[in-house]
Amino acid sequence: MRVFTPGEVAAHSMNKYLGVLVSAKYARGLNEFPRDRSSSKEKKLTTRALEELTGGNMTYRVVPRRRAE
User: I want to staple 27 with a disulfide (CB 3.0 to 4.6 A). Which of 21, 38, 45, 62 is the partner?
Assistant: First the structure.
Protein backbone atom coordinates (compact mmCIF):
# COMPACT_ATOMS: atom_id res chain seq x y z
CA MET A 1 0.00 0.00 0.00
CA ARG A 2 1.30 3.42 -0.90
CA VAL A 3 1.80 6.01 1.85
CA PHE A 4 0.79 9.61 1.07
CA THR A 5 2.65 12.24 3.08
CA PRO A 6 0.88 15.38 4.31
CA GLY A 7 3.24 17.50 2.23
CA GLU A 8 2.41 15.56 -0.91
CA VAL A 9 -1.33 16.01 -0.36
CA ALA A 10 -0.92 19.70 0.53
CA ALA A 11 1.07 20.34 -2.65
CA HIS A 12 -2.00 19.52 -4.75
CA SER A 13 -4.62 21.20 -2.58
CA MET A 14 -4.78 24.31 -0.40
CA ASN A 15 -3.73 22.35 2.68
CA LYS A 16 -3.52 18.76 3.89
CA TYR A 17 -6.89 18.83 5.65
CA LEU A 18 -8.74 20.02 2.57
CA GLY A 19 -6.93 17.44 0.45
CA VAL A 20 -8.07 14.61 2.71
CA LEU A 21 -11.67 15.91 2.76
CA VAL A 22 -11.79 16.21 -1.04
CA SER A 23 -10.33 12.72 -1.44
CA ALA A 24 -12.81 11.24 1.03
CA LYS A 25 -15.75 12.80 -0.78
CA TYR A 26 -14.39 11.53 -4.11
CA ALA A 27 -13.99 8.02 -2.64
CA ARG A 28 -17.63 8.08 -1.47
CA GLY A 29 -18.62 8.97 -5.04
CA LEU A 30 -16.52 6.10 -6.41
CA ASN A 31 -18.28 3.74 -4.03
CA GLU A 32 -21.59 4.36 -5.85
CA PHE A 33 -20.25 2.89 -9.11
CA PRO A 34 -20.28 -0.88 -9.69
CA ARG A 35 -16.93 -2.60 -9.23
CA ASP A 36 -15.43 -5.90 -10.26
CA ARG A 37 -15.60 -7.85 -7.00
CA SER A 38 -13.80 -10.89 -8.43
CA SER A 39 -10.46 -9.08 -8.52
CA SER A 40 -8.61 -9.44 -5.22
CA LYS A 41 -5.86 -7.01 -6.33
CA GLU A 42 -8.22 -4.03 -6.59
CA LYS A 43 -7.01 -0.91 -4.77
CA LYS A 44 -9.01 0.60 -1.94
CA LEU A 45 -11.20 3.53 -2.90
CA THR A 46 -9.41 5.94 -0.58
CA THR A 47 -6.07 5.00 -2.15
CA ARG A 48 -7.49 5.53 -5.65
CA ALA A 49 -8.89 8.93 -4.62
CA LEU A 50 -5.59 10.08 -3.09
CA GLU A 51 -3.72 8.91 -6.20
CA GLU A 52 -6.07 10.98 -8.36
CA LEU A 53 -5.53 14.05 -6.16
CA THR A 54 -1.75 13.79 -5.91
CA GLY A 55 -1.47 12.92 -9.60
CA GLY A 56 -3.18 16.19 -10.54
CA ASN A 57 -6.08 14.38 -12.25
CA MET A 58 -8.76 15.75 -9.92
CA THR A 59 -10.24 19.22 -10.00
CA TYR A 60 -12.45 20.56 -7.25
CA ARG A 61 -14.14 23.78 -6.22
CA VAL A 62 -14.55 25.07 -2.67
CA VAL A 63 -18.05 26.41 -2.06
CA PRO A 64 -18.30 28.72 0.95
CA ARG A 65 -20.87 27.74 3.54
CA ARG A 66 -23.94 29.97 3.74
CA ARG A 67 -24.70 31.44 7.13
CA ALA A 68 -28.05 30.72 8.73
CA GLU A 69 -30.06 33.87 9.16
Answer: 45
Neighbours of 45 (CB within 10 A): 18
55: pLDDT confidence band, cut at 50, 70 and 90? very high
Biggest CA pair distance of the chain: 51
CB-based burial, 19-40: b 16+ in 10 Å, e otherwise: bbebbeebbeeeeeeeeeeeee
CA angle 57, 51, 64 (to 5 degrees): 65
How confident is the model over 20-29, as pLDDT tens digits? 999 999 999 9
pTM for the model: 0.78
